[in-house]
């Protein structure tokens, strides 16, 4: 019997899964949902995190802002803070919001808040802050797309349809277990990624599904520089291309298929548009360079014979092409996403059960699942009176270049002049690239407001820091469209220090500005939960099913809802009848080439998928590829101070992985502290050695909290191991302007200096 069996446990959920929690001898105990076949260990970050010294305990004002008033300030990030009461801080903030609104208009306010703050449907920080800005100041400049899918999001509607239709309503794990012959996974299908989903899931089925499919005879092929990007249960074959060359590899495969007449010409003729233009490029008729397997081998570093054998083995098989988010988080990231769809079309597999193209399957726990037959309501955000927006990864460019033009998806847009940024539920010092530049960008603001549970680097760069509750300290409804379990998220702990719910903070601000009625609609938190739940109850009633009222649901603690049939979604319907169910593209078909994109005239994103060499590649100064991928010990940077996350660090620093040959050439041994650097910045990490990667690669996961320090020579670096001090802040292309932070180029050396103390989890100076 476990220690948690004898104590009261209350239900809750998180982005990494449903669980229950309770207290024993003053310590939080957590237990995964009993029906979860592969629970995510990230829930073990909660016990030490909930009352950690890194938590923000009281409202804080940056001294420079308090004494000198709003305005750009070089002291952001290094200044001390002054503790104040809630009434004082909210009075000052309300006046500042009114000042900026009246003097510069709501178009001078940026509603940041990109992030995974809460699995609950009501206490979703992004919705809360956007609703507040819409109802209180008339709107805000918003961001579009995501750091995870910044290139694929804008591209996908041009070639197939909406991103969610290709990723969430398409091929399921059930289909793969029953039908798929080959899973061709570019970027792999790492379980650390597929165990996570916004809103949470109750069953993590990816591991058991891969194992069941493999036992039936399904062939999994992981195409990644890292062998760890596929679990052993898949019994997979591993191909390790040079990072960023997947488009060239796919072109080589398609060239071989076409050259030997192994492509599905009937499917191309019936269901695709723009083949002739692409074929001219593929066969070298338009540029004199046939994209053969020999050509591809010289770029991607995989033998020509291996590529030819792979291409031939795919023909006539129920093949599923998967492109991981990681491929498009780099320069020209649109190209592998597009080329993957073309490869699936050339094989004639789109729309078949277990076949075709399922973008990012294995990247999130949402993907590969059935969709619920009833919906869960989200907090309505009101109407935004500001039309300006930016691609989410262009935040530094916007703040540093107001009034300057930029390209995006066929438009020529202008960066607005932002005076105030309001952030809640996100940490841009995790997501963003070139952190030195990001810090400089935030110093241009008049005022930077942050709601935070802990002293992240974002909070340290703010002027006004408002302590908010973490998920365990509030009630909510946990639900997601791809999991049938709805969870009554009970409060597990009282708020830490003077922390308050985001909603209550916004209500008090709205009262001061005179917009409380519009923001709150007269409801407290429990009334909002009942109001949002009503949409689900009505959906159940419409299906003639039991529909308990809110109080009954709350007492039951969870509820299962029906799911839709596994019908293959948009792509299946299109395949069955292309005329009756056309795709939402200009031609109604798969756009092998796109006249629309070609018309934009972008040299970095032409009208068909193409191999575009990277601007930055290894050289004598920076000879190694850096892969800055997602961590396995936390979600992004969340709860990096939690016990599970900290247990994976060494000498309190993040761990980077190197090939033994690359380490040996640099005099680096297992466990050594290394300095990783390039022209952008530098950081320290603890080295571990593995042969399961390319020799030219060093891998350092994101998520370590930014901890700036200086070495003995006075050179700046992150002492903790945040790779975004090394990543370049460039867009994927003029089409999408997505995040290109997955890949960089670096040098690594053994670090022999005195190790700086880790200060990331210590509160900043205050009085």
UniProtKB/TrEMBL annotation:
<dbReference type="InterPro" id="IPR041954">
    <property type="entry name" value="CT_DMSOR/BSOR/TMAOR"/>
</dbReference>
<feature type="domain" description="Molybdopterin dinucleotide-binding">
    <location>
        <begin position="624"/>
        <end position="739"/>
    </location>
</feature>
<dbReference type="GO" id="GO:0030288">
    <property type="term" value="C:outer membrane-bounded periplasmic space"/>
</dbReference>
<dbReference type="GO" id="GO:0030151">
    <property type="term" value="F:molybdenum ion binding"/>
</dbReference>
<comment type="similarity">
    <text>Belongs to the prokaryotic molybdopterin-containing oxidoreductase family.</text>
</comment>
<protein>
    <submittedName>
        <fullName>Dimethyl sulfoxide reductase DmsA</fullName>
        <ecNumber>1.8.99.-</ecNumber>
    </submittedName>
</protein>
<keyword id="KW-0574">Periplasm</keyword>
<dbReference type="InterPro" id="IPR009010">
    <property type="entry name" value="Asp_de-COase-like_dom_sf"/>
</dbReference>
<dbReference type="InterPro" id="IPR041460">
    <property type="entry name" value="Molybdopterin_N"/>
</dbReference>
<dbReference type="InterPro" id="IPR050612">
    <property type="entry name" value="Prok_Mopterin_Oxidored"/>
</dbReference>
<dbReference type="Pfam" id="PF01568">
    <property type="entry name" value="Molydop_binding"/>
</dbReference>
<keyword id="KW-0560">Oxidoreductase</keyword>
<dbReference type="InterPro" id="IPR006656">
    <property type="entry name" value="Mopterin_OxRdtase"/>
</dbReference>
<dbReference type="InterPro" id="IPR006655">
    <property type="entry name" value="Mopterin_OxRdtase_prok_CS"/>
</dbReference>
<dbReference type="InterPro" id="IPR006657">
    <property type="entry name" value="MoPterin_dinucl-bd_dom"/>
</dbReference>
<feature type="domain" description="Molybdopterin oxidoreductase N-terminal">
    <location>
        <begin position="12"/>
        <end position="51"/>
    </location>
</feature>
<dbReference type="Pfam" id="PF18364">
    <property type="entry name" value="Molybdopterin_N"/>
</dbReference>
<keyword id="KW-0479">Metal-binding</keyword>
<dbReference type="GO" id="GO:0009055">
    <property type="term" value="F:electron transfer activity"/>
</dbReference>
<dbReference type="GO" id="GO:0043546">
    <property type="term" value="F:molybdopterin cofactor binding"/>
</dbReference>
<keyword id="KW-0500">Molybdenum</keyword>
<dbReference type="Pfam" id="PF00384">
    <property type="entry name" value="Molybdopterin"/>
</dbReference>
<dbReference type="GO" id="GO:0016491">
    <property type="term" value="F:oxidoreductase activity"/>
</dbReference>
<feature type="domain" description="Molybdopterin oxidoreductase">
    <location>
        <begin position="55"/>
        <end position="511"/>
    </location>
</feature>
<dbReference type="GO" id="GO:0009061">
    <property type="term" value="P:anaerobic respiration"/>
</dbReference>
